[in-house]
Each structure stands twice: as structure tokens, then as C-alpha cells.
Amino acid sequence: MTRIPEKDRDILEQAMYLPMLLTILERDRNIFDKGQFKLKGPYLQLIEETINAVQRDLKEVKSAMRKGQMRVEQVARDEAFTMFLFIYKGFEEQHNYFNPRIRNKVQELLELYLYKRLN
């Protein structure tokens, strides 16, 4: 049984997912920058704007975590699962996440930030 309220657990999970999303976007930016595209400017601009939006949201998440006395740390990883340690107001909880679930959630966030947020 978790002691962390759902709202705060969502914040902790955002602190897990958003840095992963930033890593993917930065890799993609490098691929577009080095790629053989005739008009790479629009792609790079879209990725830059998306990176900025993710960074703004990550800043808000980190601020909420400071105020709520929360931290998240990756503890272990294997082929199937990644374990995170959630520290919430002095309490520690370990949570295992199925790696395909993490990938799917990051993909959902990528779709949200790339084009669904613009609608």
C-alpha cells in the first residue's frame, strides 16, 4: 500500500518521464541537424519548441517536488523492469516499472508535446 497520494505520485512519475523525453528529443535534434534534409529548419524549430515546452514543464515539476518534499531516483534496471525510489516527506517507497510501459508512456508524451498540445 502506498502512502503517496495519486496527485503527488503523478508528479513523481512526471519527474521520471520528462527527462527521458528530453533525451529522446535531443537525440532527434542531432539527427535532424546532421541529416541530409533539404529544409531542416522547420523540423529543428519544431523540436526546439518542443524541448522548450518540456523544459518548462519539468521546471514546474521540480518546483512542486521541492515544495512537497519529494524526490525520485532510479535504483536498478534490467531487461524487463526499472526500479525507482520515491522519497515522499521522509518516507521511501520502491516502485517497479515495466520497461515497455515506460517506453509507451514516453511515446504518449512525445505525441502530446509534438502535436496534440498545439490543438
From TrEMBL:
Domain of life per record: Bacteria
Protein name: YhjD
A Pfam family the protein falls into: YhjD
